[in-house]
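tool_call: predict_structure(chain=1)
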Amino acid sequence: MNIEFWCSVEIQSSNTLGTYNKSNTQDLEKYIQTLKISVITQKLLEMSNTKLAQIKEAKETFQALMELSRLLGTGLDVETLSICVRLCEAGVNPEVLATVVRELRKEVENSTDEVPSSSTQLK
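tool_result:
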């Protein structure tokens, strides 16, 4: 027995009512595929909006950290502060990290004091 299969589907983009029968299932399958793609696209947009909000929040947080660093006179540039933040996020003890940064600065100062400048060597 051949039973006609009729269904009505409201097409969102044009808000018109389309009628499909069993012999024209390809149209219905295309429409369903379009709906699936539409749902996936919507989810991706929601995810990207969430990701953009997270990026914006992280940027604002880092800007606040940079300003705090400047106010405290740490002398850390953007790259160094970024490295320190990543190390802290990875579980490094901030107090130990601060001690290491201070010691490294002392070493750099001592090494530059020991190396004679090029103008001194010419004399």
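agent: The CA atoms of residues 49 and 100 lie 39 Å apart. Proceeding to next step.
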